[in-house]
Amino acid sequence: MRGHIDQIAPWLQGIGTLFLIALLFSLDWQKINQALSKKVIVLAIVAGVLLLIPYLNDTIISFFKGLSDGFHAGWF
């Protein structure tokens, strides 16, 4: 069952990204900007950064591990 989910997950992520882009273009940003205070925007940015830290950490560690593996394999 795990193999099926691994094959479907990239497609779902791509479709979700397309829907997110469509949503962003369809929103009336002037009304949203009037409704949100600076405090809410700052809190949303902080929450977004805190949610992204694990993914960024994994990406950076994987990048340097790949460089190290390539160096030890004689690619550099």
**Radius of gyration, whole Å:** 19 Å
Number of helices: 3
Beta-strand portion reads under 5%
How do the SSEs run, as a string of H and E? HHH
Average residue-wise pLDDT: 83
Percent helix range: over 70%
- Based on CA inertia axes, which overall geometry fits? flat
Distance between the termini: 39 Å
- Class by SSE composition: mainly alpha
The major beta sheet can be summarized as:
none
Low-confidence segments: none
What is the tally of beta strands?
A: 0
Helix and strand topology:
Layout: H1 2-26, H2 29-35, H3 38-72
Structural features, described:
This protein is mainly α. The chain is 88% helix and 0% strand. It contains three helices and no strands. The protein has helices spanning 2-26, 29-35, 38-72. It is flat and about 55 Å long. 0% of the residues are buried. The model has no long low-confidence stretch (mean pLDDT 83).
What are the salient characteristics of this protein?
76 residues, mainly alpha, 3 helices
